[in-house]
Amino acid sequence: MKYTPVSFEVNLRPEGFVVDLGSLFANLMQLHDKRDARGLRYALVTVLVCVVLAKLSGENFMRGIAEWVRHRKDVLGEALGLAQPQAPHATTYSRILGYAIDAAEFQRVVWDFFAQWPAAGQSVVISLDGKTVRGTIPAGATRGLHQLAAYLPEEGWVLMQVVVERKENEITAAPRVLKCIDLRGKVVRGDALLAQRDLSAQIVESGGEYVWIIKDNQPEVRQAIETLFQPEPCLPGFSAGPPRGSHGAHR
């Protein structure tokens, strides 16, 4: 397939280049660019490929993404068919991700690309974690856009995420996330906030297992667990009995 640049993609080599129809580049070409075509310096697909590659390399902030691309602009320029490889400023990434594309569409396209890999989704552990989206807290407010995601830490991609509405929390949002995922043979991992009976039962009934991580920020729960699994006091001359929680404890 020969890629024919549209008129405003002035930085692409005029002879074009070959694009694999199943590649990340080809998938990202599906996205609609909301920018005015006049005066554009970077093609949308070029910027988004760089963003995804930088994210896969562990960069989570715009400055880090920009720096990662700057150190590799020549290699990326050759791979992307650029006539004059340049590294966009961090603000360019912010503007494009914030205003030039539909975030849900971008997420869907990237998810579809990784989901088509033969081994995608085969790892066992699923992590549940919530994050407030950077830069979404309005002036005078204490809360911005908060999302709860189920992701595969061994593979580095998100299976499903939902917005935690203002009238709910992660506890009520978690069932909505998990009901969209095949949990058979999976182990769901989360922090102490998600250690809820109903959520645990939902996971088991769906064919999965769970591990809730109790830390010092839940001192009463942690103490109760430690007490449950301590052995019974032993009188002199008698052997120690099993831990309190070893009989009839499901998990």
- Give the tally of structural domains: 2
Straight-line distance between termini: 55 Å
SSE run:
HHHHHHEEEHEHEH
Strand order of the largest sheet: 3-2-1-4-5
Shape: elongated
- What is the count of helical runs? 9
Unreliable sequence segments: 1-10
Number of strands: 5
Alpha-carbon Rg, integer: 24 Å
- Structural class estimated from helices and strands: alpha/beta
**Quaternary status:** single chain
Q: Keywords for this structure?
A:
five-stranded mixed β-sheet, single chain, about 250 residues, disordered N terminus, elongated, 2 domains, about 35% helix, about 15% strand, 5 strands, Nucleotidyltransferase, domain 5
Give an account of the 3D structure:
It is a single chain. The chain is of the alpha/beta class. It has 2 domains: 24-115, no CATH class; 125-213, Ribonuclease H-like superfamily/Ribonuclease H (Nucleotidyltransferase, domain 5, 2-Layer Sandwich). Helices cover 34% and strands 13% of the residues. It has 9 helices and 5 strands. The chain has helices spanning 24-28, 44-56, 62-70, 73-79, 90-100, 103-115, 170-178, 197-205, 219-228, and strands at 125-132, 146-152, 157-163, 187-191, 209-213. A hairpin with a 4-residue loop joins strand 2 (146-152) and strand 3. Helix 2 crosses helix 3 and helix 3 (62-70) crosses helix 5. The chain is elongated and about 85 Å long. The relative contact order is 0.08. The model is unreliable at 1-10 (pLDDT under 50).
